[in-house]
């Protein structure tokens, strides 16, 4: 599959690994993919993100993602569903953190993998985004996987990353409309 990735898509994947290393994460997540996309310049996805007003808001997006991690990865929809049956997630997080320390509910913590290879593994959800990007590309009739396909795939995966993108107006349809028109690059 990676032979179909354009240089910009490969740069996003490498950037996600770098982001995971920089933050000391045990594995590469879909959050790292989004942050790597936000760091790109001069690409199809960066153009779409700029037209949606997200490109210059990388730090705000990172804070929103950190808050979602603090809630154990619960999405806004999860929070609202729980609130509907009388469960206040903010109160629960506060009580857990008072007992066990700040960030006790963060998802993604666990035994460190990849120690022997020195590489951080991709989480199942991050791998799903990569696989979905192939389906998105094929569905659009493209013979390559570009950074724009990674962005579109992130909008379709339920969870905190898609929630944060939606908060900024970056739904699948909005991103698709914001992508630059004209010929996209062919296979790398």
TrEMBL record:
The keyword Manganese does not apply. InterPro entries: Clp_N_dom_sf, Clp_R_N. GO terms for biological process: proteolysis. Keywords: Hydrolase, Protease, Repeat. GO terms for molecular function: peptidase activity. The keyword Hydrolase applies. It comes from the Bacteria. Residues 2-186 form the Clp R domain. Pfam families: Clp_N. This is Clp protease N-terminal domain-containing protein. It comes from Streptomyces enissocaesilis. The lineage of its organism: Bacteria, Bacillati, Actinomycetota, Actinomycetes, Kitasatosporales.
């Amino acid at each position: 599959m990676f032979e179909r990735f354009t240089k910009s898509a490969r740069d996003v994947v490498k950037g996600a690994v770098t982001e995971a290393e920089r933050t000391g994460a045990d594995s590469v997540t879909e959050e790292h993919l989004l942050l790597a996309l936000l760091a790109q310049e001069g690409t199809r996805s960066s153009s779409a993100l700029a037209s949606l007003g997200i490109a210059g808001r990388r730090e705000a997006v990172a804070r929103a993602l950190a808050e979602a991690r603090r809630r154990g990865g619960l999405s806004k929809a999860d929070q609202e569903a729980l609130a509907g049956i009388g469960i206040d997630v903010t109160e629960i997080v506060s009580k857990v953190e008072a007992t066990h320390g700040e960030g006790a509910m963060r998802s993604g913590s666990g035994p460190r993998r990849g120690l022997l290879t020195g590489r951080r593994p991709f989480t199942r959800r991050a791998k799903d985004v990569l696989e979905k990007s192939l389906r998105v590309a094929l569905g659009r009739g493209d013979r390559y996987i570009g950074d724009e396909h990674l962005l579109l795939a992130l909008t379709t995966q339920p969870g905190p990353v898609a929630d944060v993108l939606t908060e900024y107006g970056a739904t699948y349809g909005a991103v698709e409309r914001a992508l630059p028109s004209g010929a996209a690059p062919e296979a790398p």
